[in-house]
Specification:
Blueprint lengths: L1 H22 L5 E2 L8 E4 L6 E3 L2 H8 L3 H20 L5 E3 L10 H6 L2 E7 L13 H17 L12 E3 L2 E3 L7 E7 L4 H9 L3 E10 L3 E3 L2 E17 L4 E12 L5 H16 L10 H26 L1
Parallel strand pairs: 2-4, 2-9, 3-9
Antiparallel strand pairs: 1-4, 5-8, 6-7, 9-11, 10-11, 11-12
């Protein structure tokens, strides 16, 4: 009995320590030892939300359109914070106390949106090539890219929305909503106030209508698409495009949408982020903490076996 009580006390102390460490994390900012950068997450504007799922969520939960949109808006930022996984410091503006003021409106009024052709990812060369071969290959690739590039019509023709996606008669390739900064002081002001130097703009969220998949009969899927732009402190576009995921049409639980599918989108969106540059003292401490954790698990196992 004494042994059981001692074991219970040990588990309680261990759990309390872990809980105390978790509660130290700021709900809208994540700090790490890597102080070289700080990323700001800017949620999509309320008007940049298209969803065919709201009616089913409302029927199931009793939530109205605005409540559903805000929950998904906050949930997406939550998942991006988790995807960053303390690689670099981060601040989420939808969680920040300033977001209830005019800060987000100031950001939204400083940018513009435009549908742009989805970027084509270039394949990496696996085999080593000579310098002359590399130069020749790059020139050939560039010429082919120019010759085969989709030609836009000179006359503008209005696009159409089909299944939550934008299609135009100018070009039927897939597009995404991109962000451009019109206020030249925006990044300077944000950097001065939040020490941020990398900005993830969530430009638009689309949840499409159920469509059939020929490969999987009798099951319909919704396409979830998150449009985004990543800009550095100099205003240079670091990455832009859209992350997409297929979700079975019968999924109407808003928490499951966030937990299971927004998490996949967020990990894809944040895949460009570098690993943290930790100080030597931090690396040593992490090794020590890992060693202590292993020793604690070993003690628990031994106590359970006795």
């Amino acid at each position: 009995m004494a042994r059981y009580s001692l074991f219970s006390l040990f588990i309680f102390c261990l759990s309390f320590t872990m809980f105390s460490q978790d509660t130290e994390v700021n709900p809208f900012e994540i700090y790490t030892q890597d102080k070289n950068h700080k990323v700001m997450i800017i949620p999509f504007e309320s008007k940049m939300y298209i969803s065919s799922l709201d009616a089913e969520i409302a029927k199931k939960t009793g939530m109205n359109y605005f409540e559903i949109r805000e929950k998904l808006r906050i949930g997406l930022s939550n998942q991006i914070l988790l995807a960053i996984n303390k690689k670099i410091p981060a601040v989420s503006m939808i969680h920040h106390e300033d977001s209830v003021t005019s800060e987000l409106n100031y950001i939204y009024n400083s940018v513009g949106y435009k549908y742009t052709l989805m970027p084509v990812e270039e394949k990496e060369v696996v085999e080593e090539e000579s310098l002359s071969t590399q130069v020749k290959s790059k020139i050939t690739s560039f010429i082919n890219k120019v010759e085969n590039a989709p030609k836009e019509k000179k006359e503008y023709e209005r696009g159409k929305i089909y299944n939550g996606e934008v299609y135009t008669t100018n070009h039927y390739a897939e597009r995404f909503m991109n962000t451009s900064i019109h206020n030249t002081n925006l990044l300077y002001n944000l950097n001065k106030k939040y020490n941020s130097d990398l900005y993830i703009f969530i430009n638009e969220l689309n949840i499409g209508k159920p469509v059939s998949n020929p490969e999987i009969p009798n099951i319909y899927f919704r396409r979830i698409k998150v449009h985004y732009t990543v800009i550095n402190q100099k205003g240079k576009e670091m990455k832009a495009g859209a992350s997409t995921v297929q979700m079975p049409h019968y999924v109407t639980d808003v928490d499951k949408v966030i937990r299971n599918y927004f998490s996949l989108l967020s990990r894809d969106l944040c895949s460009f982020m570098p690993e943290p540059k930790l100080e030597k003292a931090t690396v040593i401490k992490e090794k020590e903490d890992s060693k202590k954790a292993k020793e604690q698990r070993k003690i628990i196992q031994e106590m359970l076996q006795e």
